[in-house]
TrEMBL record:
GO terms for biological process: RNA modification. The keyword Repeat applies. Keywords: Repeat. This is DYW domain-containing protein. One of its GO terms (molecular function) is RNA binding. The keyword Repeat applies. Residues 495-591 form the DYW domain. The lineage of its organism: Eukaryota, Viridiplantae, Streptophyta, Embryophyta, Tracheophyta. InterPro entries: DYW_dom (IPR032867), E_motif (IPR046848), PPR_At4g14850-like_plant (IPR046960), PPR_rpt (IPR002885), TPR-like_helical_dom_sf (IPR011990). PPR repeats lie at residues 177-211, 279-313. Belongs to the PPR family. PCMP-H subfamily. It comes from the Eukaryota.
Length: 591
């Protein structure tokens, strides 16, 4: 039987353009120049074939110049479809904008697909002013509510971080289908607006709008950011019912969601059930889930399984391994060996994130000089995460000289980074550098840098309960504060004393006021709520998520609470998981 290629070659001898176009679509021809050349020889190159050729040339960066040459030399009177093909072919570069302006000067008016293509360019290149002009043009042409234009506009606003404009556009849509909902859910989740993303997902389901793999994976991304285990379970069930469970994108998002919610066993079940379709993204998600728990044994086991199946690990694979080593307090030598293997066996050059794991491990081991030398000698400019790792270690070691140097470098990177000021202030105060602390606070005030508001939340029965420090908004506030008083009384009998961050000692408030503020931190209120009757079932793990670093006093409180209430408490802060059990934490008091 003749192969597809033989059939293709045979039929080239007497082809008109429609046949050539059909074959170009039907057969996977690596080089569209074959069809183009034959079309020129047989005079079969009409507009329809040229559009197909432009699209196929755009699939290879090396062949992209042929698309422009074909357009300008072989399409004498390009119409809107011709221009759209050319613009779409160059959508990843500024050339698309030049071609779009040329089209308007021709003059040719765009259609909804043209606008969608050029809006994708603006989103990729973050050309916000030009995108606004396109929005105005789409309104004038009556195309802004068209599906292609509307979804592209949403994507543009979300990628340019103009979330409020995107939501306004979404609300003004006369009819919202699954495309609009998917774009909004993904956009909100990607802009750290997880509660709103989940709310839009719930609205979509309530309205009977069908799900897509993008809306489901976007909702799972939002759930994973908030580490909301029950939401992951609800969306998991929905993915099974809608038939998307065995979609590789959804399955990978589920693994990531369960992993970031701290339930690596459920993530592994999803992984095993979808093993045959798993790509490198899914493997990395599973390994990252174990890495957050410091489960180096499971991470390395998966790595060897991956190698056995012929999959090639990438830089994210090794980042998961190094993170697991760092979170499990493995030796510096282990991390160095993995980095060497990454380079020698797979030809992968470590990035700044990989070096940060090594620097953090060195700092944790008390090797501050080695960590600092590596920071200044690695082939990258150290980012804020690297300097923060060093700063935390210096705080533990009370190395005043290095603290001042690192604070300077950290604030040079971003003078408006509120977390940098807080960490720096506590580090300097731990070394007794009160003048520097005062200067730092003045600088923070002068720059009008405000500390991000701390929030903690507990999920129960599919609902997320969010708390701020000193929060009185909850419907069960009376019970929450009464329970908190009971818990604090119980741990005081076990030997608890308040632990103030050093920077608090020189605040101009009295002792009682400082104790009051400390007592009502958001994570303590979340814990008191979670330990109310009917919230977290007896014997179950109490899970709390916080948007900032957990403070030293709350960390101490949770260690005592794990003894007083006789259960495991898991707190996921912005840095890592803290698993409290029998008066100890898995972070070993270093975070």
């Amino acid at each position: 039987m003749a192969s597809a290629w033989q059939v293709f070659a045979y039929t080239l001898s007497s082809m008109n353009s429609s046949y050539l176009s059909t074959l170009l679509e039907q057969y996977n021809v690596d080089d569209p120049r074959v069809v183009h050349g034959r079309a020129l020889r047989t005079a079969a190159a009409d507009r329809y074939l040229c559009h197909h050729l432009i699209t196929n040339y755009s699939k290879s960066p090396d062949l992209l110049p042929y698309s422009s040459r074909l357009f300008f030399t072989q399409i004498p009177s390009p119409n809107v479809v011709s221009w759209t093909s050319l613009i779409a072919a160059h959508s990843a570069s500024p050339a698309a904008i030049r071609h779009f302006v040329s089209m308007l000067r021709h003059p040719t008016l765009p259609n909804s697909r043209t606008l969608a293509s050029i809006l994708r360019t603006c989103a990729a290149l973050l050309c916000y002013p030009f995108g606004l002009s396109l929005h105005a043009l789409s309104v004038k042409l009556g195309l802004s509510a068209e599906m292609f234009t509307g979804s592209a506009l949403l994507d543009f606003y979300f990628k340019c971080r103009s979330v409020n404009d995107a939501l306004k556009l979404f609300d003004e849509m006369p009819e919202r289908d699954e495309v609009y909902y998917s774009a909004s859910i993904v956009g909100l989740a990607s802009n750290t607006r997880p509660l709103e993303a989940l709310s839009v997902f719930a609205e979509m389901r309530k309205g009977g709008i069908g799900s897509t793999m993008y809306s489901i994976s976007g909702a799972l991304k939002a759930a994973s950011e908030m580490a909301t285990l029950e939401q992951c379970g609800i969306i998991h069930a929905h993915s099974v019912i809608t038939g998307f469970y065995q979609n590789v994108v959804v399955a990978s998002a589920l693994i990531d969601g369960y992993g970031k919610s701290g339930l690596s066993s459920e993530a592994r079940r999803v992984f095993d059930e979808n093993l045959q379709i798993m790509n490198i993204v899914g493997w990395n998600s599973m390994m990252s889930g174990y890495a957050q728990q410091g489960d180096i044994r499971s991470v390395t086991e998966l790595f060897h399984m991956m190698e056995g199946r012929g999959l090639v690990p990438d830089e994210y694979t090794f980042l998961a391994i190094l993170s697991a080593c760092n979170n499990s307090a493995n030796s510096v030598e282990d991390i160095e060996q993995w980095i060497a293997r990454m380079k020698s066996m797979y030809g992968l050059e470590p990035r700044v994130e990989h070096y940060n794991c090594l620097i953090s491990a060195m700092a944790r081991a008390g090797r501050l000089e080695d960590a600092h030398n590596l920071t200044t000698s690695m082939p990258f400019e150290p980012d804020a995460a690297v300097w923060r790792s060093l700063l935390v270690a210096c705080r533990h070691q009370r190395d005043a000289d290095k603290i001042k140097m690192i604070v300077k470098r950290l604030l040079e990177l971003n003078p408006s980074d509120d977390s940098a000021y807080i960490i720096a202030s506590n580090a300097l105060s731990s070394a007794g550098k009160w003048d520097e602390v005062a200067a730092l606070r003045r600088r923070m005030k002068d720059r009008q840098v405000r500390k991000e508001v701390g929030q903690s939340w507990v999920e129960t029965q599919g609902k997320v309960h969010v708390f701020l420090a000193g929060d009185w908004r909850h419907s069960r506030r009376g019970e929450i504060y009464a329970r908190l008083d009971e818990l604090m009384a119980a741990i005081k009998q076990l030997g608890y004393d308040p632990v103030f961050d050093e920077a608090h000692h020189h605040e101009s408030v009295d002792e009682e006021e400082r104790k009051e503020k400390l007592l009502h931190h958001s994570e303590k209120l979340a814990a008191a709520f979670g330990l109310l009757e009917g919230v977290t079932p007896p014997g179950k793990v109490l899970r709390i998520v916080k948007n900032l670093r957990i403070c030293r006093d709350c960390h101490q409180v949770f260690k005592y609470l794990s003894i007083a209430v006789g259960r495991e408490i898991i707190v996921r802060d912005v840095n890592r998981y803290h698993r409290f059990s029998d008066g100890a934490c898995t972070c070993r008091d270093f975070w």
